From TrEMBL, chain A:
Keywords: Cell membrane, Membrane, Transmembrane, Transmembrane helix, Transport. The lineage of its organism: Bacteria, Pseudomonadati, Pseudomonadota, Gammaproteobacteria, Lysobacterales. It is found in: Cell inner membrane; Membrane. PROSITE patterns: ABC_TM2. Belongs to the ABC-2 integral membrane protein family. GO terms for molecular function: ABC-type transporter activity. Its main location: membrane. This is Transport permease protein. Residues 19-248 form the ABC transmembrane type-2 domain. It is a multi-pass membrane protein. GO terms for cellular component: ATP-binding cassette (ABC) transporter complex. The chain crosses the membrane at residues 20-43, 55-82, 137-161, 167-186, 198-215, 221-245.
UniProtKB/TrEMBL annotation, chain B:
One of its GO terms (molecular function) is ATP binding. The keyword ATP-binding applies. It comes from Dyella marensis. It comes from the Bacteria. This is ABC-2 type transport system ATP-binding protein.
């Protein structure tokens, strides 16, 4: 195991984060605060409770997941896309670094950053609405698992993309709609029966549902299923990354 | 594992390496090449000859279509951890990070290649490359020449024993070029094998122990530099005449003679390898025909002349 390399990549990526502190931390926190003000406080005050939870508190897990997904993907995809674009990838390709080590460095840093962000949003939410966390251990576990899974997914996008547009098309066209439709702002049970069935094909539903369960003990789908789906997606990503490195796909001509 | 049994394997050993890029273009055609330990080897060839492709295959950036490469006796694909830790690469393109400081970038490289932190070594590398004053500068604020130095520092950060320099002096100023040659000599003195590609013949002539000439994906020649110049070098004798003549005298057709436009100099080209240069007889014959000379001197052809004639020969 080339641990110095994992450390070097991790540090390099974290340094990039802190260099662009406004963009990478402040702006997601700001935009989430806006969501709380608009949905939680303004609109939420006119909404009833959902399963015994006030609307403002109900949307917290969903909002955190929204940021977590977006940030994990954009961080990890950008982290590996940037050296491809600038040409500095030659160094990684010529270094005694295995795919696993590269992934640990890049995905590790992207996950760290989005977990930090998720916790920061959780703190921010305190200023707007009171909430409780029923299962703190599972809350952190879901946070970590989701961060790692979607950072891996972002890493794949970054490897695959060969221009900036491709880099943004999946987060924008696929992930954002899936998160908005994934029950961040409502319970799946509020949908008509047909759309409830359709929603079960949306992987984000499982993430948000499981995460919300760790807060309030109530979920749209069984929490074991939620965790299982997330792990399954992580495995799919891991296999895809292994395949990309083994074939040199889009990395080595 | 038989290679490992031999006491000192070559620094780099290339066997039957071919590369066909995805579009179907064949950039390398079955290259065989051995780089000796501790030598400075210059890979010389025009643009598009395949120099970068060959280096990239050895360093693990490009996949070969056929053939094998070993470094220090280890296969570069199977034992990539071993071989890559020994190899440093300064790429042709000025690909650097923008926002990193020089220090952070060089430190990153050392870690990436698996070495424990060693600030003293990095300081030495930066000082040797006149980068020490710039260690806290962001790379994007540096000039092109300084960026090139940063790339060299990054390549040396993990103390490689085999260093590849891909067109190190393309587009750099004279000062940096001389610094670089100086650095290469210093490295060689510490036992580092240096492989550089160039299309500046001057560079190969100045630096290399051996020269390989590559053109259109084929290695057409590998030779000790001095032997090459001796073998292929033509010599010329320049004869300055006492008084100008209108035309070359009759009866000297067997000699390759040329008369300068002003009629005051005759140039005689002869093979440096030849047993008998024929100079004595030629001078006597000229004297017999009433052509007197006031001065003589010989010129040796440079590696450049040799190179041009070689590459032309394959067209
Ligand atoms: N990634 C690539 N895909 C297709 N062709 C390539 C690629 N890289 C290089 N080539 C072609 O291979 C040939 C050799 O290129 P290169 O090795 O860069 O030559 P040199 O370094 O000697 O100038 C050139 O004709 C170049 O266009
Ligand atoms: Mg080149």
């Amino acid at each position: 195991m080339n641990l110095p390399a994992v450390r070097a990549i991790y540090r390099f990526e974290m340094a990039r984060t802190f260099r662009t502190l406004t963009q990478s931390i402040v702006s997601p926190v700001l935009s989430t605060s806006l969501y709380f003000i608009v949905f939680g406080t303004a609109i939420g005050s006119r909404m009833g409770e959902i399963g015994g939870t006030s609307y403002g508190a109900f949307i917290i897990p969903g909002l955190i997941m929204l940021s977590l997904l977006n940030e994990s993907i954009s961080n990890a995809s950008f982290g590996i896309y940037l050296p491809k674009w600038s040409g500095t990838i030659y160094e990684l390709l010529s270094a005694p670094v295995s795919p696993l080590e590269a992934v640990l460095g890049y995905v590790g840093a992207a996950s760290t950053k989005s977990v930090m962000l998720g916790l920061l949003i959780l703190l921010t939410a305190r200023f707007f609405v009171p909430y409780s966390i029923l299962h703190p251990f599972w809350m952190v576990a879901f946070l970590l698992l989701t961060a790692v899974t979607f950072s891996s997914f972002g890493f794949i996008i970054g490897l695959w993309a060969d221009d900036f547009q491709k880099l943004q098309v999946i987060p924008l066209m696929v992930v954002t709609p899936l998160t908005f439709l994934g029950g961040a702002f409502y319970s799946i049970g509020m949908l008509p029966p047909f759309w409830q069935k359709v929603a079960l094909f949306n992987p984000v539903v499982y993430l948000i549902s499981g995460f919300r369960w760790s807060f309030y003990g109530q979920s749209d789908v069984n929490v074991v299923l939620s965790a299982g789906m997330t792990v399954a997606f992580l495995l799919v990503c891991a296999v895809a990354i292994a395949w990309i490195f083994r074939t040199g796909y889009k990395l080595r001509s | 594992m038989t290679e490992q049994a031999t006491p000192t394997p070559h620094a780099v050993s290339v066997r039957g390496i071919s590369k066909t890029y995805k579009g179907g273009f064949q950039a390398l055609k079955s290259i065989d090449l051995d780089i000796r330990r501790g030598e400075i080897f210059a890979l010389l060839g025009p643009n598009g000859a395949g120099k970068t492709t060959l280096i990239s295959i050895i360093c693990g950036i490009v996949k070969p279509s056929a053939g094998t490469v070993s470094a220090d006796g280890h296969d570069v694909l199977r034992d990539y951890r071993l071989t890559r830790a020994k190899i440093g690469l300064v790429p042709q393109e000025l690909s650097t990070d923008a926002f990193e400081t020089v220090w952070a970038a060089v430190r990153f490289s050392r870690g990436l290649f698996g070495r424990a932190r060693d600030d003293r070594h990095i300081e030495k590398v930066l000082r040797d490359l006149s980068l020490w004053e710039k260690k806290d500068a962001k790379i994007m604020t540096l000039s092109g020449g300084m960026k090139r130095r940063v790339l060299i520092a990054k390549a040396l950060a993990h103390e490689p024993s085999i260093l590849f320099l891909d067109e190190p002096t393309a587009g750099v100023d004279v000062e940096l070029r001389h610094d670089m040659w100086e650095m290469v000599r210093r490295l060689r003195a510490t036992g580092v094998t240096v492989i550089l590609t160039t299309h500046y013949i001057e560079e190969a002539e100045e630096m290399a122990d051996r020269v390989g000439v590559i053109t259109r994906g084929e290695l057409i020649l590998v030779e000790d530099k001095r032997a090459l110049m001796r073998k292929l070098g033509k010599k010329q004798l320049s004869i300055s005449l006492k008084s100008p003549i209108q035309a070359l005298p009759q009866g000297l057709d067997e000699y390759a003679l040329e008369l300068a436009d002003d009629g005051a100099t005759i140039t005689y080209t002869f093979d440096a390898q030849g047993e008998d240069t024929g100079i004595a007889v030629l001078l006597r014959k000229l004297g017999d025909r009433g052509v007197d000379f006031k001065d003589l001197h010989t010129l040796e052809s440079s590696l450049e002349d040799i190179f041009v004639s070689l590459v032309r020969g394959t067209r």
